[in-house]
Amino acid sequence: MKPAKQGHFDGACGLYSIGNALSLLSKRTKTDEIFYTLFNFFCKKYGNAEIILFEGISRNQLNDILTNTIKILQLDLKIYRPFWNNSAKSISDFHKILADEVNENQSAAIIGYEYSKFNDGDYCSHWTVIKKTTEKSLFTYDSHNENKIISIKKCRIWDDFQKHKIKPYKISSTDTFIIYK
């Protein structure tokens, strides 16, 4: 199974991360039913779809849509938000929680991050699904053109620096949702 892909508007990554995470963990529920339900909920609750096309969604909106999609579809899934109130102290702390909690086919994580490097025009703010972790890497199940494997060595916890030469992935640990069976 391949992840659903976004169109040309990157602002939909939050909704796609919800749909892709739920599709990974709810094999009995059709992917199109999951996406229909979450898009329908979003439109009824938040109205104008321009928000996601141009601005993306916040962690509170993602939490609301994720929670209600699970409830509406009556999926036997739970959500754990390990850093909701307090950021991870280090990338090691963040990675340890993901390594302990994310088990392929049993759980997945949705994380938020920014990506940018010095002397590089690339910049994005993105939500992605982590389906597996190893000592050195995070494996994504992504809706866009994200790397399938993100090296932990290229990650840092949220800081005040916009760009970083060696660690271009700026992880917002407070934007971490672990969904499990």
What does this protein structure show overall?
With 181 residues, the chain is an alpha+beta fold. The chain folds into two domains: 10-79, no CATH class; 80-180, no CATH class. It contains five helices and seven strands. It has helices at 13-25, 31-46, 50-55, 59-73, 91-101; strands at 78-80, 107-116, 123-133, 137-140, 149-151, 155-157, 169-180. A hairpin with an 8-residue loop joins strand 4 and strand 5 (149-151). Helix 1 (13-25) runs antiparallel to helix 2 (31-46), helix 1 (13-25) packs parallel to helix 4 and helix 2 (31-46) packs across helix 4 (59-73). The relative contact order is 0.21. The mean pLDDT is 88.
How would you concisely characterize the structure shown here?
This protein is of the alpha+beta class. The protein has five helices and seven strands. Strands 1, 2, 3, 4, 5, 6 and 7 form a seven-stranded mixed sheet that branches.
